[in-house]
Amino acid sequence: MNKKISKIAFYFNSRNKRALMAFNSIKDYINKKYPEISLSDKNPDVIFVLGGDGAMIKAVKSFNYINSLFFGLNLGNVGFLTSIRDSKKFLEGIDRFLQGKYFVSTRNLLKVEVLRNKKVVFKDDVLNEVAIQNLVGVVNVEVKINDFLFQNICGTGVLISTPTGSTAYNLSAHGPIVMPNIECFVLTELMDHNIPTPSLVISKNEKISVDIVDFRVKELFLMKQNQKLVGCDVVLVSDGVNLFDLHKGDQVVVKNNIKRIRFVELEEDYFLSSLKNKFYMKKH
Length: 284
What we know:
Elements: E1 7-11, H1 17-33, E2 38-39, E3 46-51, H2 53-62, E4 69-74, H3 90-98, E5 103-116, E6 119-126, E7 129-134, E8 139-145, E9 148-161, H4 169-172, E10 184-192, E11 200-203, E12 208-215, E13 221-225, E14 228-232, E15 234-238, E16 242-246, E17 251-265, H5 270-280
Parallel strand pairs: 1-2, 1-3, 3-4, 4-17
Antiparallel strand pairs: 5-6, 5-17, 7-9, 7-15, 8-9, 8-12, 9-10, 10-11, 12-17, 13-14, 15-16
């Protein structure tokens, strides 16, 4: 039995006119039809996210992975993480949800840390992926699985994604699509100069570490870090949102995260339906 919803929060970019209009329309609709439901950012039962997949990732990080449901209303291009992709069906879908006619898709996360001289200098909880890459050149990295040296990459870098992130950057890098109910990681090289190797799907119980062995220092890019501008070449990018400048000798450690995210779905096999509509439908 699905929990009765009594408190709703909203997340959207207030500078996005479409999102602002949708927010005002949905807020008025809920106030009139469901006056018993309060709108509040404090411990909400559900967070309505107005936007695309990028907005969903920012919402999850903004609410710090609290134990709320995330209900995505797509105003972007892809919308793999959203609950309703057609804006014309927003109110119909909200009615179904508030009447308890929904499913919950639980997603696993990554925990990433950067070790420098054996001290943690960066950490993040990651919904989609961790990318380690040279912005304009080559980086040499060693990839270890449970301290076993598995792969040497001399190329743009390496990507470690969750099943949720398998349809994002990982897919663009020709990695496999993984169903979101499988708790695992996907390891995908990025533009390796060696013989191309396939992606590897790894159990969530394993530890992945990536040693930054070498790269040519150019410092063609500046990034703000700890309120200072620093020159950088190789960076860690988590969920396309948080960036961190990597140095030679750094080690990036990726493990399973005890935190989980719960997405609202309004139909069974929603993920498969989404894939079918995007990739597998025959076009006439």
